[in-house]
Design brief:
Elements lengths: L5 E2 L23 H7 L5 E5 L3 E8 L2 E8 L2 H11 L5 E5 L2 E5 L1 H11 L2 E4 L12 H5 L12 H4 L4
Antiparallel strand pairs: 1-7, 2-3, 3-4, 4-6, 5-6, 5-7
């Protein structure tokens, strides 16, 4: 369900300036500009008009950074990715996907909102091992391929 994505916003980010873990203003820009703010040299995996996606590795760990041409494209991507679980750092027309620890560390540099996907399984993880073990593994290629291989779920 599209509205099932739960937001896990940190407390203290209400604009009063008193929150200890207050994130900076959410960054904007191209994939390369956002990657530079995250101190990552992006390894571009997908370079299309509607979606640009890169693998990143920093001292905090590995993650996938994606930028989108439209807000709608971004939301559709996140809604679909929600099935795989994981943590998502969401900004305006961009998302970073990785382990919760990595996403939390990135938020300190990029701002944004943390969202957590709800992992689904039907009697086991067969066929989903790459998705459940590492949310970044499911997002290293062209994300558009996910719709066909999970239509039965």
């Amino acid at each position: 369900m599209a509205l099932a994505l739960a937001a896990a916003c940190s407390s203290g980010d209400d604009g009063d300036g008193r929150g200890e873990d207050k994130a900076p203003k959410t960054v904007t820009g191209t994939l390369e500009q956002i990657a530079a703010q995250a101190e990552c040299k992006p390894n571009i995996q997908t370079d299309a008009k509607e979606l640009r996606q890169a693998n990143c590795t920093t001292g905090d760990g590995k993650y996938v950074l994606a930028t989108f041409a439209t807000d709608r494209g971004q939301r559709e991507w996140i809604n679909e990715a929600n099935d795989y679980g994981g943590s998502y750092l969401v900004g305006r027309k961009w998302v970073a996907v990785g382990d919760e620890k990595v996403v939390t560390a990135l938020r300190a540099r990029l701002g944004g909102t943390v969202e957590t996907g709800t992992q689904h399984t039907s009697g086991g993880t067969e066929g989903h091992e790459g998705h459940t073990a590492s949310p970044t593994a499911s997002h290293t290629g062209d994300h558009s391929g996910h719709t066909d291989d999970h239509s039965g779920h």
